[in-house]
Amino acid sequence: MLSYVIKKFVASESVFFMNIKSMFNLIEYDRKNSLLKYLNFILLILFLWVIFVNTSYYIEKIIFGEHENFYDLKLIYNSLNDALEGRNTYKIFPPYFDQPTTSIPPYIINIIKNFGYLEFSSFTKIFIFLEVIAIFFLFFYSYKMFPLKEIKFSYPFIYFYSFNFSLGLAGTIVGNIAVLLYSIVGIALVSLYKEKILIFSILIFIVSCFKFYLLIFFFLPILIYGFKIIKYIVPFLILICFVNLLSYIDNPNLYQSWIELLQIQVSRSPDNPWVGSDITQSFASLINIFGKYFDIYLYPSAVISNLFWSILTITSFLSIFFIYHKKRKLNENERLKILSVGIITIFLFYPRVLSFDLFLVVPVYYFLVKEIQFSNKKNINSLTKFFLFLFFLCVLDFIF
Fold first, then answer.
1. What pTM was estimated for this model as a whole?
2. From CA 161, how far away is CA 169, in angstroms rounded?
3. What CA dihedral angle connects 341, 26, 165 and 64, to 10 degrees?
4. Which helix (H) or strand (E) segment is 178 a member of?
5. What DSSP string runs through 150-165?
6. Which pLDDT does position 5 carry in this prediction?
């Protein structure tokens, strides 16, 4: 009886169901193989459950709860007021985690500090307006670059409901500027894909002025076009160093306080809530778990963690460059595949990876899982893709 109900449900042709179901058609299977067909059905049900749970949480905590919306935005607003009144907005004291503040560089704060004269409600409205534009740019990046017709109706659901609402709704409600910065990076990636290197470099320079570790995206044009492209990159690297130098000369104490704040935020310790989920933190966490198994405290020092990150990052980036870089001119399909590998690699080694940093990863992940042939055997290939989608859509949601 249960099998009959499942078959009827899978065979239904409702528009809503077909639109959601289309995202799972990336998993090809022999129609005679009922196991993979049912696995597709299970994947769909689990993702719909994720949507239901996250929507319920959103209604309970965000709409009817006592959740403080635009919390991160309020930190930026307070920093603008600090700048207007000549206070050092970056100065915090132990315990550091009870004194959150923005990590936007002092030269950016000084440029936009006049927005602090606005009421917070007006400041929030401006941010919401920019968010709407940013989300449009993110969708433009996703649909423009990645030929994923199978998920054209489903991508918004993935974007707004996956990762425990950390993307989409939650990522924008807290007022984090990541959605703005990554929308610019998304347009930069489209420009790079279209061989507009100068536009790409300008846009990455702009976002790097807000978060300097976004400079890591300058790896992508080198991966695709080779070291000859450095002539477009070096001037912007020099320029951002010059901007920081001027900021230091203008107010050494303020600049030093900002550097100290960044050091606190990226410090490797088991109880640091600001540390992300990058590969270095995974390395540190594994060592810590191993130590607990033997009832001893083991946690790598900052020197060891940074050395681990530097060696592994340089080795991996060079390896990927020599494996994937072609001396000949690439066609659009080849360029997209190599660019996708590069984006995934960047976020693997990206310092302080947080859920907000995954805006650009969603379409890349789907594209690569679709394109990669994991096995010559069709069923094994489909089963592998099923578990990769299951992990991405459902398992990671509970992790974040």
1. 0.82
2. 8
3. 170
4. helix 178-193
5. GGTTTHHHHHHHSGGG
6. 41
